[in-house]
């Protein structure tokens, strides 16, 4: 419980950033442009999402010397300039030039070296802000912010997610929770799926 206070402070920082820098992604957060009527209940082998169903999802990709990009982590778009993600994604990769961000993607090819095509957008990382009390050993305070350059443009397939209110506290009763991201489409699946729809 004590470790949550610094995380909450970082979330307040993120909320203030959202309020201040919302130049091209103004308007309500958390709007899903397309939704599946029947959501998948499983993680591995879950249901494929429609394009635009999770517009705040961001693919964090490691950028190699030969221009290949490898999806490593997911993040949530807060506004046109900031992404919220996990601090453990940057263990050993803390230089901004090691990263590319892909917005609006439904499918990701692992080890891609081709430019993204609209409506997808690719951006650079200008700044990585890792929680000052993040512990790689325990993964306590596992939270980070990324500043995007140039700012991303929101539209039909890209839009900001919402953060909880600072004093919201824990949920008071059961709530439905959705997990979205890119990963294996079958248990013990292979990473070598260059043409697959859900390549990690």
UniProtKB/TrEMBL annotation:
Keywords: Disulfide bond, Hydrolase, Protease, Serine protease, Signal. GO terms for molecular function: serine-type endopeptidase activity. It comes from the Eukaryota. Residues 43-200 form the Peptidase S1 domain. PROSITE patterns: TRYPSIN_DOM, TRYPSIN_HIS. CDD domains: Tryp_SPc. One of its GO terms (biological process) is proteolysis. Residues 1-19 form the signal peptide. This is Acrosin. The gene is ACR.
């Amino acid at each position: 419980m004590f470790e949550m206070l610094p995380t909450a402070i970082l979330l307040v920082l993120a909320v203030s950033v959202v309020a201040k820098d919302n130049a091209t992604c103004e308007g309500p957060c958390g709007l899903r442009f397309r939704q599946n009527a029947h959501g998948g209940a499983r993680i591995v082998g879950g249901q494929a999402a429609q394009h635009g169903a999770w517009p705040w999802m961001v693919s964090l990709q490691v950028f190699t010397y030969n221009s290949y990009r490898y999806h490593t982590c997911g993040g949530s778009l807060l506004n046109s300039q900031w992404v919220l993600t996990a601090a453990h994604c940057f263990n050993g990769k803390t230089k901004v030039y090691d990263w590319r961000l892909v917005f609006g993607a439904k499918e990701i090819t692992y080890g891609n070296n081709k430019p993204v095509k609209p409506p997808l957008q690719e951006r650079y990382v200008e700044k990585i802000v890792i929680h000052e009390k993040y512990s790689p050993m325990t993964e306590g305070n596992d939270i980070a912010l990324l500043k995007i350059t140039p700012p991303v443009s929101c539209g039909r397939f890209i839009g900001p997610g919402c953060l909880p209110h600072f004093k919201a506290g824990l949920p008071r009763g059961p709530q439905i929770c959705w997990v979205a991201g890119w990963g294996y489409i079958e248990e013990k699946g292979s990473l070598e799926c260059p043409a697959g729809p859900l390549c990690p």
